[in-house]
């Protein structure tokens, strides 16, 4: 039994606001919590581990011959496509889990603690970058096993991987927004898939745009996902950084600039 | 006990841990909390007593900054829950009605994360977690995931988590509901110890006995309103320490018997809808003798008589003059 006496309120150092340093510290603690949860329930990593493996095998052998003549020639085209598609799909989980988390009792505890209001949200977004990293590493490894030897070299591959992770993180703000405003986790999943499915498939991720009808080509070309895929292809296959790289980063910035404030505002209203 | 003084505040506010004025919360067209006033003196145990759906949880959530009030205001140690929410959070610990801990993590991990969030260092957090787990008899289960915890263990962990920062005010929402008698007694001891150390405790309960056992003052709430407030003794005087249940052989003399009961015991009585049983609060068991004699003299024959602990229903009955159950109307018609 502790024999401490409790300090009276007027003897305490009370702060009206949490400062920036504390906000960062709180967010990191919340991210640590996210990682612990992943460690405790590793089955939630099924999607990020299985999807890269299965999709890479499946798409390469289904489309390889038809599009590039053979599997070997298709790998430099398809691996960046699958990478982008897989990692971005993974970011949906952020929104779904955020909703589930906010519905749990423990969220009340977080709300009653004198911590930065933003910490649970920031922590969740931060912890999820681990999923993107796993998916990225696995997809490239799968490609390597199947015979992909990126001309751009390891450095370029790492940069490409980081680009995809950064862009997915940006996109996860969109799903975080859905997560905050939706009533149930399954509705978050549903609406997110509805947004993401056309975006990833109506792009140059799997099939060159030139083979599509005119109207579709127009959409594929303005689709930001296409630019991201092209940027990754340029990096892995020739080690060059082009206009598409810049467009992808601009796109990511725009998404964060729009969705971070509205997500935070919606979140604060509930928190 | 912990006498809190603040020179900026007026004399009458100086030692109030909780001061709520006209709190209102409306869900759709349901006025869940409908103008609640509360004054909780620092260093005391305050009980909020009420049946299911009375608005206890909603009231606590507003006081604990978890829910915004639609009207009214509340101050915790003089700090407004709306304007100074972040300060209020530094002064309170909240143990909600349903466990607010992370199911997928272990007890230690939960406590360490909450400690880290409260600004303790890694080493301090570990130490604090160990200390609390030992104090609440959870050391053996410390590393197990909470999924396998019993209700009582979860409850204790939840309370432990509320005490990390040693807050001067602790909210406990139905801390003993669902606990076995032994665990409940331990919980009571813990609550008493907290107050001895200088904390203030505001707890809710559905059990009169619990409020009786612990609280210095009690507010009885029903349909979102405070229907009675006072010390345990005040309340006891109005409802009696026990209650009398009486049924008579001849239904025709029911109202006559009621009159006698009310006159002799000097209280209000009621008649239960089923079986025409008279119930009345009773402060002094000795009076039963007088009552029996008077009934015999009036020629009223008894069927059954018993003395029981008052139920929450009877508390409401005597305080508001009406039953919480839906048979209120029936009763009134019967009496007419
Ligand atoms: N989030 C909510 N949305 C809609 N109605 C709510 C909400 N929370 C509570 N209520 C309603 O408000 C009323 C008061 O609920 P509250 O939980 O405060 O009661 P309580 O006294 O804590 O009851 P119990 O003893 O069952 O815990 C109830 O009618 C309940 O249905
Ligand atoms: Mg409740």
UniProtKB/TrEMBL annotation, chain A:
Taxonomic lineage of the native organism: Bacteria, Bacillati, Bacillota, Bacilli, Bacillales
Transmembrane segments: 45-68, 74-98, 118-142, 154-178, 190-209, 245-268
InterPro entries: ABC2_TM, ABC2_TM_bact-type, ABC_2_transport, Nod_factor_ABC_transporter
The name this protein goes by in its record: Transport permease protein
Subcellular location: Cell membrane; Membrane
Major subcellular location class: membrane
Location of the ABC transmembrane type-2 domain: 43-270
One Pfam family matching this protein: ABC2_membrane
Cellular compartments per GO CC: ATP-binding cassette (ABC) transporter complex
GO MF: ABC-type transporter activity
Membrane topology: Multi-pass membrane protein
Coiled-coil residues: none
Swiss-Prot/TrEMBL keywords: Cell membrane, Membrane, Transmembrane, Transmembrane helix, Transport
Family indicated by similarity: Belongs to the ABC-2 integral membrane protein family.
